[in-house]
Amino acid sequence: MAKSYLKEVYSGDTNDSRELYASWAATYDKEVQKNGYVTPKRIANALKDVVTDQSDFILDYGCGTGLSGFALQAVGFENINGLDVSQEMISLAEKKSIYKNLKVFDPFTEIPVYPDQYKIITAIGVIGAGAAPLKVFDSLFTLLPQNGLFAFSFNDHTLNDPSYEKKVKSCLSQGHATMLHKSYGDHLPKANLKSNIYILKKL
Ligand SMILES: C[S@@+](CC[C@H](N)C(=O)[O-])C[C@H]1O[C@@H](n2cnc3c(N)ncnc32)[C@H](O)[C@@H]1O
Question: Which residues contact 72 (CB under 8 A, 6 or more apart)?
Answer without folding.
Answer: 40, 43, 44, 47, 58, 60, 80, 122
